[in-house]
Amino acid sequence: MTNRNVLITGGAGFIGSHVVRLFVEKYSNYKIINLDALTYAGNLENLTDIENAPNYTFVKGDITDEPFINALFDKYKFDSVIHLAAESHVDRSIKDPLAFVKTNVIGTMILLNAFKALWKDNFTDKLFYHVSTDEVYGSLGETGLFEETTSYDPNSPYSASKASSDHFVRAYGETYGMPYVITNCSNNYGQNQFPEKLIPLFINNIINHKPLPVYGDGNYTRDWLYVVDHAIAIDLVFHKGKQGDTYNIGGFNEWKNIDLVKLLCQQMDVALGREKGSSEKLITYVKDRPGHDLRYAIDASKINKELGWKPSVTFEEGLKITIDWYLNNEDWLNSVTSGSYQTYYQKQYS
Ligand code: NAD
Ligand code: DAU
């Protein structure tokens, strides 16, 4: 196996921490550098089990800090980058779009420039892997699936910033010959997800007997994928994906929000030993998200056919693992929901 020097950005976040763990545990001959600014969404407690591994180094830093990033590339001479660092929550992007442009667009540009400056005209055995989202494709109607060839049509400031960064990655490939790959994935769920996103927010609210704020009529559809299966897909694409190509990653698992919330309520009642139907009573319909995309659904047949990837757990299994994890990690949940989380929650849901 070749030795590699891999920069993973955003590795203290939800998906990033699962990717870092998989790479550190599986590739002892790789040097893995995890660069993360530790924003509200980044948490080193996600990685305590591997923090002392000999092939792992954590660096605290901001991808928008150009001199710092250039010095980091100079020091470590990364041959590959797996770029996950981002502002990732749609509701926050509606309140503060500029923060999303700074990190997701400018931050990505600074990484691209540092990578290009380091390897100039000799990109042999190099790779810039951009982790992106299905939201760049916009919204589907009641039928159809997002394919890799679907035109970009982003609707939220978050998805517009991710679409923009995807375009820049592709442009660096076309213009400068930089080897890259992009994956566009559907909604992830699983352990260590910050409780601002639907599933962990509702788990936390059920635990605390708080209302479950369903946006609009709840008839919005998302395709859900267990986070470890996303990390496995990233590993496959990193090693076997075709350079200059895009792969859609999804769970083959569409749910209307309201149906998902009812399933979650049923599983929570069982896990908490509460009376059947008690969590469902917490469902509260609230004002809709502006520009709310109706439906996302991924056609993941390309990654399935070309690389043999498919999800390893069913949704019911993944949801059970997730619920059990949150119930067994009360300290983690309490620590991330104290302080600034309360201010965010008041502003978003009052
Ligand atoms: P997250 O919000 O949980 O984590 C983001 C991480 O990036 C955090 O650790 C944060 O500290 C770090 N970060 C933010 N700004 C930074 C900066 N300026 N410099 C350095 N680090 C910074 O996000 P996530 O859900 O794990 O998503 C990771 C990536 O995957 C994002 O690029 C996101 O767009 C993409 N994605 C997410 C999903 C999903 O369902 N969560 C689905 C598809 C794609
Ligand atoms: O599709 C991939 C994307 O999935 C990722 O790129 C994003 O980073 C990630 O945040 C996620 O975006 P969504 O907006 O789909 O996820 P969220 O969990 O915020 O919302 C899921 C659905 O649930 C959506 O239709 C809005 C709804 N919702 C969400 C929240 C937080 C509610 O009804 N109430 C809520 O309180």
UniProtKB/TrEMBL annotation:
Residues 7-321 form the NAD(P)-binding domain. InterPro entries: dTDP_Gluc_deHydtase, NAD(P)-bd_dom, NAD(P)-bd_dom_sf. Its cofactor is NAD(+). One of its GO terms (molecular function) is dTDP-glucose 4,6-dehydratase activity. CDD domains: dTDP_GD_SDR_e (cd05246). Its EC number is 4.2.1.46. One of its GO terms (biological process) is nucleotide-sugar metabolic process. The keyword DNA repair does not apply. It catalyses: dTDP-alpha-D-glucose = dTDP-4-dehydro-6-deoxy-alpha-D-glucose + H2O. Keywords: Lyase, NAD. Coiled coil: none annotated. PANTHER family: DTDP-D-GLUCOSE 4,6-DEHYDRATASE-RELATED (PTHR43000). Belongs to the NAD(P)-dependent epimerase/dehydratase family. dTDP-glucose dehydratase subfamily. This is dTDP-glucose 4,6-dehydratase. It comes from Olleya namhaensis. The lineage of its organism: Bacteria, Pseudomonadati, Bacteroidota, Flavobacteriia, Flavobacteriales.
